[in-house]
Amino acid sequence: MINHKVLIATYYWPPSGGPGVHRYLKFAKYLFDFEIEPIVLTVKNPTYPFRDESLTSEIPKKLKVYKSKTIEPFQIYAKLKSNKPENIKPTVEIESDSFIASVGSWIRANFFIPDARAGWVLAARPQAERLVKQQNIQTVITTGPPHSFHFIGKHLQKKFGIRWLADFRDPWTQVYYNKILPRTYVADKIDEILEKSILNKADEVIAVTPSQAGNYRKIFERDYHVITNGFDPEDFKHNGIKNKQSSSILIRHIGNIRVAAVPEMFLKAVKALENTIDMKVEFIGDNNPRLEKLIKKFQLQNTVFLKEYQPHKIATKKMTESDILVLYVPDVDDIRHHIPGKLFEYIGSGRPVLMLGPVDGDSAAILEEQEAGIACDVNDIDAIKKGLKKLIEQKSSTVRPVDLENHPYSTIQLTESLSRLILAESEHHHKKVVKV
User: Fold this and answer.
1) Are residues 214 and 77 in the same domain?
2) Domain residues for 279?
3) pTM of the predicted protein model
4) Helix, strand, or coil here: 378?
5) Distance CA 96, CA 81 (A)
6) Which of 19-33, 64-78, 85-99, 211-225 has the lowest mean pLDDT?
7) Per-residue model confidence as pLDDT tens digits over 270-322
8) Domains identified in the chain, total number
9) Beta carbons of 169 and 337 less than 8 angstroms apart
């Protein structure tokens, strides 16, 4: 029996691909089991960096999804930067290989604040208001990035007094690519003011990692909830399938490689071990051009292969068919808090993980907690070689068993935490799911 309705405002929704869509697609799927009806408000004419048509089949048939057209300034930016705007990613590859690209990056950094999706907010207000009144919605959740979407929650809270949960999948002003954007002092300050206004006004703020919550506390002092990303048990029903019989070790990185996450030392480690270990390395996803250049530079064309982005269902299957999975945390300052969403799916797959990133960060802590792999400093080639050798020695012909539904990082368990937060009475805000 449904006793509560929640409006979820999100940019990334099927047929969007990539990591941004999975969090609330899965939450919306399981909230019904906790007597909560989710209602989704999203964008009618989006510019997605990736499309995954297969995800549309995962939208529950009983889920109501409403779409509002947007004035998309990102499309203007994309046209300035490329003659193929559909290929430009909103996280912006900072590679000024032309004057137009440099101008486009500067405009995106200094005029589209907080982000290049902000045009949707004004266009979506009327429909959001109608939904609150017609559907008797009691709670609104806004999820970012794009962080401009939080202003829908702020507006609805002010107009109707409804409870508003602001969900932060990534940092806002502290996100790693902001540090390499050509931003002015004024743009930075405006962004900081907008960020603080959301952190101040939201009834509840959700972060996806403990360190991220701690960083937000430094920006604005308040209580924060931590609800991590996770994996959907239904995506890993094929767990336990035997790997194909081969003496070659299959090592895969599944996900996108950005300019700040090109694993040069990992490639050097592979080169050093190439003649002593029979292995094949695949990077499956949208890969920064520098990765291909390094593969050629180190003459790894017979060992390391680039594969195109795959639909989610195929990607999760490829996880369980691998011998070792590689996780790369971007090599930038203040990245300890960052936990790539695919780490949880790697855990769900049951395959051992070689993490390249801060060994004292949140991702490394989860790996250790789950006994799911080895963390190595991204620039320590000796540690990477040692980690690779150890995981190869531990190679198993079957997938490590995982209690999928009852796992703490199962989306079912995480949705239960979210449901408790949604159903918490506004006068009892001090009752936290997780205090940081």
Assistant:
1) yes
2) 233-393
3) 0.86
4) coil
5) 9
6) 85-99
7) 999 999 999 999 999 988 899 999 999 999 999 999 999 899 989 999 999 99
8) 2
9) no
